[in-house]
Amino acid sequence: MYCPRRFGLLEINKDWNENAFVVNAELIHEHVHDGSHHFSDHQKVVRSSIDVYNNLPEYDLYGILDCVEFVRNKNGVAINGLEGTYKVRIVEYKPKAPKDAAFHETDAIQVFAQKICADFVWKCNSEAVLYYANTRKRIVLPFDESYELYDTLLKKYLSEMRAVMESHTIPTRKKGQKCSGCSLSDICFSKEKKYNVKDIVMSMKGVSLS
Ligand code: SF4
């Protein structure tokens, strides 16, 4: 959703590069996944790094959830390995909240894909929240109100991603694409110049710079 070209570079070329944004996100996720988020009390059981999937043909997804809170509730669902019944709450950790909105739509669609998997695995209607580290706030995502919208969007992006994978062709840069925070910009934009005026002038004078 952010950039089809970046998706192609990552998934077809297997390119990778880090910048401050990537390292910051990795540090936050390392902390979430280090086991320190595991705990239980009378209200909930919290677990991190949980594998989930949805193998319905229209999704065919697999992923790992940052953190899941199983909230004790008599109207909830049974969870394998736990006693009682629970409401399921997905918590996804992100470094930075947007300035002009409650959440990034790119974050929301990722969490919606997680919800599709969590609901499939636990036969539930999970709640999903984003936790932005810079504001230390939780944002409840509007999936109940806008389920159809996010579902249509997710299916559209999955179909586009699969078309890119099948074509083995890296998409060109989208018009208006914002690239300032992208860690792959050095790979994406070739540094080679088509010509260099100084080289041309020097070669006309018979001086080689190489
Ligand atoms: S530099 Fe821009 S166009 Fe290239 S992959 Fe990154 S976001 Fe996409």
The global form is elongated
What is the radius of gyration computed over CA atoms, rounded to a whole number of angstroms? Answer: 22 Å
Measured by DSSP, the beta-strand proportion falls in: 15-25%
- Number of structural units classed as domains: 1
Spatial arrangement of strands, main beta sheet: 1-2-3-4-5-6
In the predicted model, the low-confidence regions spanning at least 5 consecutive residues are none
- SSE-based structural type: alpha+beta
Give a summary of the structure in a few sentences.
With 210 residues, this protein is α+β, with helices and mostly antiparallel strands.
Characterise the protein shown here:
With 210 residues, the chain is α+β, with helices and mostly antiparallel strands. The chain has one domain. 35% of the residues lie in helices and 24% in strands. It has helices spanning 4-11, 20-33, 105-122, 147-167, 185-188, 197-204, and strands at residues 39-40, 44-54, 61-78, 85-94, 127-132, 137-140. Strands 1-2-3-4-5-6 form a 6-stranded mixed sheet. The protein is elongated, with a radius of gyration of 22 Å. Bound molecules: iron/sulfur cluster (SF4).
Could you outline the blueprint of secondary structure elements for this entry?
Layout: H1 4-11, H2 20-33, E1 39-40, E2 44-54, E3 61-78, E4 85-94, H3 105-122, E5 127-132, E6 137-140, H4 147-167, H5 185-188, H6 197-204
Parallel strand pairs: 4-5
Antiparallel strand pairs: 1-2, 2-3, 3-4, 5-6
The structure holds iron/sulfur cluster.
Features:
binds iron/sulfur cluster, 210 residues, elongated, alpha+beta, 6 helices, 6 strands, six-stranded mixed beta sheet
